[in-house]
Structure formats: C-alpha cells, structure tokens
Design a protein that fits this description.
about 140 residues, alpha+beta, 5-stranded antiparallel sheet, two-stranded parallel ribbon, globular
Length: about 140
C-alpha cells in the first residue's frame, strides 16, 4: 500500500447497496461488488489517509480503515503507465471541491431512463469521476 494506490470499497449502507444494484443492472459483475472508490494520499506512521469524494465534498482527512465501515475494500496498485506524482497532484488539487449531488441524481435517472438525461454541475465530483479525471490527467 502506497500513495497513489486506488481503493475499491464495499460499504454496508443502503446507498452502497443501491449503487451496487445499479451497477449490476447495467455493467459487468466483476466490479459491481464495489460502490465507492478512493485514492491513497499518504501513509503516516502506518496509517493510510485517502482522498475521496463524499457528501462533505472532496476530502483527504479520512483513514483507509474508516472508508467502508462494516464492509471491505480492495487496493489496486496504480498502473505503471500513470504518472503517480501527476495523479496525486490532480487529486490533491480537488480537495475542498463540492460533491456532485446533481451528478448522482443524473446517474439514478440514467438507470431508470437510459441515455435520456444528463445533468452535471461543473466543479463538483462523485468518487468515480474524481478518480477517472485524475487518471486522465496523469496519462
């Protein structure tokens, strides 16, 4: 486990269950067991801290152990083709940005009405969008 690793999370709450249901409905079973994604930001005294998009916005003050209470997580090493410094630079630059509640509503509508509505608010993030943008930024 090191900075830049990606963390796939499986939480036990109702929102997590709803996300996994929607993913199973539209996508492969391979990753539909997960409902959240985060990035390992730093490891201090053996404790890993993550960057994530959560209801409070993009944060970097939570520990890896707190990310999926009652659930589990899987650490995925950052692909070698991705520049780790740039990946973390982008993710860290987004700390403090707002959460994409409009995006979540749009995703929910996409499950019910595929390809009919696309709502996004610039400068906001959901977890998967944040990680995807950081990956694109870094190559």
């Amino acid at each position: 486990m090191k900075p830049g690793d990606i963390v796939l999370c499986h939480s036990t709450g109702i929102v997590g269950r709803a996300i996994r249901w929607a993913q199973r409905r539209d996508y492969s079973e391979v990753f539909s067991q997960y409902n959240h994604v985060a990035i390992i930001d730093r490891v201090e005294d053996g404790v890993a801290y993550i960057i994530q998009a959560e209801a409070a916005g993009v944060t970097n003050d939570k520990t890896l152990e707190s990310v999926a209470p009652g659930g589990s997580y899987r650490i995925i090493p950052l692909p070698e083709v991705i520049n780790c410094e740039e990946f973390l630079e982008f993710a860290r630059s987004q700390v403090g940005a707002l959460y994409g509640f409009t995006t979540i509503v749009s995703c929910a509508l996409d499950v019910l009405l595929p390809e009919s509505i696309c709502l996004r608010k610039y400068g906001t993030w959901i977890c998967s969008g944040l990680v995807a943008a950081a990956l694109m930024y870094a190559g």
